[in-house]
Amino acid sequence: MQNGDQHYSMEDETYTDIDGKAISLECQSHSGFCREFTVSSAKVSIGRVMAYTCAVWLSAYIIFFVTENTAVLSSAIIITLVGMMVHIHFVKVDHETLLIIGSLGVQVSSSYASGRESTDFIEMGKIKDIVINEAIHMVRKIKDIVINEAIHMQTVIYYLCILLKDPSDPEAVSSVVPLFQSSKPRLNCLVKVYKSCQEILAKC
Amino acid sequence: MVLKIFFPQCCNKADSGLLVGRWIPGQNSAVVLAVIHYPFIPGQVKQYIHQMRGQSGVDLTVLGSWSMPKEGQEGMESFLRDLSTIFPQGQWLQLSREMGKIGFRCHVLTRDPSKSPFASQVAPIVPYIRHLLLTRAHGVFGTVCQSEPLFFLDKYDDGPVKMTHWQSEGREGSIIVELMKQASTPVCLLTTWILTLWTSLCSSRILNVRPMRFISSKLSTCLQLSYRTEHLQTVCSPTRATAHNHFMRKANIFVSFFVDVSLGLLLVSWMYRENRIGKLANTLVPAADHVAKELEELLQWLMGAPAGLKMNRALDQVLGRFFLYHIHLWISYIHLMSPFIEMILWYVGLSACLGLTFALSLLSDITALLTFHIYCFYVYGARLYCMTVYGLSSLWRLFRGKKWNVLRQRVDSCSYDLDQLFIGTLLFTILLFLLPTTALYYLVFTLLRLVVVMFQGVLHLSVDFINSFPLFAMGLRLFRSYRLAEGVKFRVLCEEPGTPLHLMMDINPLKVSSVVQTYRTPTYSCYPKDSWLALCKKLFLGELIYPWRHKTTKID
């Protein structure tokens, strides 16, 4: 925490994502025209890791018991290790950050559980606007499959996105960059971020 | 709009002096390129800047002053402020930093009374300019790239003007690269001359006779040879590569060629040690014999009652004997060749020195030659089956009283005479009852042919992979990631109250997956010509399939 910047995280208001898991939002205002928003999702839960590992190894032992081939055991170990590494390096997102610098641009970055960061910077000249969009989200939960396979759960979700200008036609929107894809916060969280961003965009 | 200053990190610790750089008009930002230290003579500074402006074509000016006061230099600030009168500018920046603090202070003096100074909204940004320059990053930093002549003087040079800039510690270079640059010109000239000789030989009239052209277009080794010649011509052209893409293409081709040749040499040394090639040649003829024997057994099985199906005895015997005689001819041919095979293989195996891709294409060609009889059987079976199917469909239409109208490309009704109908129905019945036999032979030989095609396809795919994978770009991305930039990224360094916002700008390297996509060398890759559905349809109708097709090399 640097001295001099205003840092506040809303502890009294808990945010959840669209699946109902708890997430946290942190807003940092570095200056009048520079703000940073960090949405952190839940960390890797040790219970699930142990459950998956035990499942894989138990099945490997059963296969070994049947076939008497030791290659099964070593391949189970390798599969578990490789799967875990791939999961924390490529799949599990720890937090996502939005850094908006007035008259310079917007930087979007996702940080994975292994520490890898993937960043993208969009110049202000290319940005048309930041808006909240609606989308239809198809979700099939396990209990729905058991109870009634034919039903697809469909919900309307909101997501924050950046509209990019078309270089040939300044009025048209060429593409849409969605933000906070992995954490998927709900509307109350998005509205807060949206209002903050619009203040900065209006200034420059 | 907020005033933005791009400040190189190396000048953070520089002594006080004048800031030299460029204003970017549309975006209200300034790029600082160097700091000229005290003592200097203003006349000489102006002359130097004028010279640099002419050499580089960039609109260099004195932007303002930089002060980092050390002990004993208290009067510096007021002195530097007075400099603004010597160098007349529209806006004069005054950046200062105290020892031990990270933040800068910034004041903007403006001459033009209509513009008001935005001193509180300045955001100096401190980039890793050294690395940015190496990537020729776009946008604001096109300026920095163009100002190369400015960076030729380093701190060890004695001149009228003492500067600090990103290369004042000494220019980045490597002994190996310099040596290679010196050696490359004569080597390139020599290689180009050899290649022109080779291409003129290849296009001479002797080798351009029809049969030779046909054979060389079918053999994948010749294709690979022509492809590599093209590559070498690209690499060894004496002109320097100017564009980044061009340079990366040349480097990728060179590195992959080098790796290919070294792998090929390894393979050759392994094979020729302990006379493994002789052993391979000695197993080749027995292997071909074995394949022929298996085929004979298969045909005997088909001539009997295969899988319990009842065949038409006469047709079965005819087809079976026909194919058996072919196999007998083939085996005699192989036995005729057997004394020469070892020698041929020994010399042909030496061509694997040219690269691993050549060894693989050779293997593919040898497989094609040795399984030529399977290809012939497939063609016979397919043609027979195709004729049966077309005859059946046409006679089926006759059976229903319809006809294919060639003019209108549709099925029309037609009134046939009684004797036409009688003969047609008879032929239809005959063909229908002969269909299982021909279908079975077709099925068996198509499966064999598909196995061979799959094997060849795997070999071609691996050759293609070795040809097109951008090894140099991948190595650059892993070890010198700042040279391949996708963009930039920012980090907030510090915000002290009263100082402008201080951000760190760094290079965002290209993602590994996009490295492969961007820098892939285009090849004559073989790709499936038909979709799965079209392939199945062709198989069902009995049309000859050539599942892999070579693209011609694209030149862009």
UniProtKB/TrEMBL annotation, chain A:
GO terms for biological process: GPI anchor biosynthetic process. Pathway: Glycolipid biosynthesis; glycosylphosphatidylinositol-anchor biosynthesis. GO terms for cellular component: glycosylphosphatidylinositol-N-acetylglucosaminyltransferase (GPI-GnT) complex. Keywords: Membrane, Transmembrane, Transmembrane helix. The keyword Cell wall biogenesis/degradation does not apply. The keyword Glycosyltransferase does not apply. The chain crosses the membrane at residues 49-66, 72-91. Residues 97-139, 140-181 form the Phosphatidylinositol N-acetylglucosaminyltransferase subunit H conserved domain. Belongs to the PIGH family. PANTHER family: PHOSPHATIDYLINOSITOL N-ACETYLGLUCOSAMINYLTRANSFERASE SUBUNIT H. This is Phosphatidylinositol N-acetylglucosaminyltransferase subunit H conserved domain-containing protein. It comes from Oncorhynchus tshawytscha (Chinook salmon). The gene is PIGH.
TrEMBL record, chain B:
Keywords: Membrane, Transmembrane, Transmembrane helix. The chain crosses the membrane at residues 253-272, 318-337, 344-371, 377-399, 420-444, 450-473. This is Phosphatidylinositol N-acetylglucosaminyltransferase subunit Q. GO terms for cellular component: endoplasmic reticulum; membrane. The gene is PIGQ. PANTHER family: PHOSPHATIDYLINOSITOL N-ACETYLGLUCOSAMINYLTRANSFERASE SUBUNIT Q, PHOSPHATIDYLINOSITOL N-ACETYLGLUCOSAMINYLTRANSFERASE SUBUNIT Q-RELATED. InterPro entries: PigQ/GPI1. The keyword Methyltransferase does not apply. GO terms for biological process: GPI anchor biosynthetic process.
